[in-house]
Amino acid sequence: MFADYHVHTAFSDDSVYPMENVIQDAIAMHMDEICFTEHVDYGIKFDQEPGKPILYRGNEPLTNCDYPLYMKTIQEMKKKYGHKITIKTGMEFGMQKHTIPQYQALFDRYPFDFILLSIHEIDNQEFWNQEYLQGKSQKEVYEGYYHALYELVSSYKNYSVLGHMDLINRYDKRGVYPFEKIKPWIQKVLEVVIQDHKGIEINTSSKRYGLQDSTPSKEILQLYHDLGGTILTIGSDSHKPEHLGTGIQEAKEMLKAIGFQTYCTFEKMTPIFHRL
């Protein structure tokens, strides 16, 4: 099984990669299955509404996925390419606690195979532009991040796996905060995830971002294994042709070395296990 379970297209505000091109490229790579996970970031971005102008910050559209067109296009792609590759419907929920009702309404509106639960901002302060990190110590940044993640997994249950669980590492220019200092917070999160029969993702974008460790780190993956976690997906976090499918085989080898025996694809929010 060769599957990529974190893929963005032009339906995400930070990609211009047409969905049909992604599928054609995946078929050319002999991929068996692909799951699209377009961005939704309530709190800082807005749904596209017919007749209303798109809001911009500079050249960046502050828009979530166009859900009706996305769902319609996926169905068209399944009809056209479904005999060559399995296509799954997903989204990446960039959630904050105060936005949970909006995500629940969206989840109830459409049939999903897979939901990545991610944090890209806290209190509407984004990570990528350093807004959330500014003026905070590393202790405050990391404890705040994992506390927010713990609140989400404790409050919201309609997701499949946690996306890039230690994403905050990517944006902290002071270097990675020691694992042992943050381990109790991470363990609290993982215990809820496992209890709820949810999982975590291995996000293979770590190399292209210049990180020294995997995402999540090998220490987090080992802890998840030791706590009894078994639900894992692997995704490239693709936004461009050169991202698609990268690092997936290497991620499988790393998981086997830790002691995992299986990883997952999803159908109608239910994990399907495959041997590594």
Plain-language structure description:
It is built from eight helices and 13 strands. It is globular. The N and C termini lie close together (9 Å). α1 runs parallel beside α2, α4 runs parallel beside α6 and α6 packs across α7. The model has no long low-confidence stretch (mean pLDDT 94).
Indicate the low-confidence ranges by residue numbers: none
Secondary structure class reads alpha/beta
- Domain module tally: 1
Order of helices and strands: EHEEEHEHEEEHEHHEHEHEE
Q: So, CATH architecture?
A: Alpha-Beta Barrel
Largest sheet: 7 strands, parallel
On the 0 to 100 scale, the average pLDDT is 94
The first-to-last residue Cα distance is: 9 Å
What would the keywords be for this entry?
single chain, 276 residues, alpha/beta, TIM Barrel, two-stranded antiparallel sheet, 34% helix, 21% strand, globular, Histidinol_P_phosphatase_HisJ, amino-acid biosynthesis, Histidinol-phosphatase, histidine biosynthesis, Pol/histidinol_Pase-like
Summarize the helices and strands and which ones pair or pack:
Elements (H helix, E strand, L loop, with lengths): L2 E5 L11 H10 L4 E8 L15 E2 L2 E2 L5 H15 L4 E9 L5 H10 L4 E5 L2 E2 L2 E2 L11 H18 L5 E2 L5 H4 L7 H17 L3 E5 L14 H9 L5 E4 L12 H11 L3 E6 L2 E6 L1
Helix pairs in contact: 1-2, 4-6, 6-7
In brief, what are we looking at here?
The protein is α/β, with parallel strands linked by helices and 276 residues long.
